[in-house]
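user: Please review this fold.
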Amino acid sequence: MDDATIRRYLSESRLIVLDIVHGGGARDGDDVARVWAERRTALTSAHMRRLPRVAGQILWQLASMQWIERSDGEWAVTGRGLHARDLASALV
């Protein structure tokens, strides 16, 4: 996947989940949703209810793009995922 393609797939929500996974300890969408909710305290109750499902979908998308992979029962960022994070930080 070249840099232009990676940039096309970068989104704020994907970067949030990628950052949470990079922090370690994320086993599933519920773990990601818990950390996401702690970081974004202004979420509405409707968003809070949907967050575990959304986080699970984004985990699947990131795994499909090979930005994350399972390692010892937890999600881990791959080299490609680290490269995507670097590209995102260069855009800011």
User: Anything to note?
Assistant: Strands lie at 68-71, 74-77. The first helix runs from residue 3 to 9. The domain at 3-91 is CATH 1.10.10.10 (Arc Repressor Mutant, subunit A).
